[in-house]
Amino acid sequence: MLSEREKMLRGDLYNAQDPELTEMRKRARKLLRALNASAEEERLEIMAQLLGAMGEGTWIEPPFFCDYGTHITLGKNVFFNFNCVVLDVAHVEIGDNVLFGPNVQIYTATHPIDAETRRTGLELGKPIRIGSDVWVGGSAIILPGVTIGSRTVIGAGSVVTRDLPDDVFAAGNPCRVIRQLA
């Protein structure tokens, strides 16, 4: 039988109130309080404890928020500007040299569309993958299950509802390809 965490990471319906998941979120909240109150010289150590993995040169400007942290994998030279949110109930994989403007929100978490199932309180998530050399403009929202190709630029305020290829500028709500970059 699968644990609730295993179900969550597989994208199956799971109970978010499971004791293991509750403890993991409490751990993340404690680390987030420390990160968000940290001086610059202590931030890297806290980030290393919070995140699943991070490459050299990665930086997060507080405040920053996430569910677990451990399901977030960051490449080298990733930069999160102020007030970013990553709901990491599924894996979030981010390549190298990626820039996030302020207020960017990355949501792997979702709920059943069917009202009867939703009333059970069960949740699910879908992983998000972002390639290398991507720039995500301020206040953009990336929805569950999306993959963003390398060298792509997302315009500020966009709502990314579906996959985007490499080398495009995309913007809008819903976000759509505006032009090819290469």
Chart the SSEs and their pairings.
Blueprint: H1 4-10, H2 19-36, H3 40-50, E1 53-54, E2 59-60, E3 64-66, E4 72-74, E5 79-80, E6 84-87, E7 92-94, E8 99-100, E9 105-107, E10 109-110, H4 115-118, E11 124-125, E12 128-130, E13 135-136, E14 141-142, E15 147-148, E16 153-154, E17 159-160, E18 168-171, E19 176-180
Describe the structure.
The chain is α/β, with parallel strands linked by helices. The chain has one domain (4-180): UDP N-Acetylglucosamine Acyltransferase, domain 1 (3 Solenoid). It contains four helices and 19 strands. It has a seven-stranded mixed beta sheet. It has a five-stranded parallel beta sheet with strand order 1-4-7-12-15, with no helix packed on it. The radius of gyration is 16 Å and the shape is globular. The model has no long low-confidence stretch (mean pLDDT 97).
User: How many strands appear in the DSSP assignment?
Assistant: 19
- Give, in order, the helices and strands: HHHEEEEEEEEEEHEEEEEEEEE
CATH class descriptor name: Mainly Beta
Helix content percent band: 10-25%
Rg (CA only): 16 Å
Classify the secondary structure makeup into a structural class: alpha/beta
The main sheet orders its strands as 2-5-8-13-16-18-19
**CATH H level, superfamily name:** Hexapeptide repeat proteins
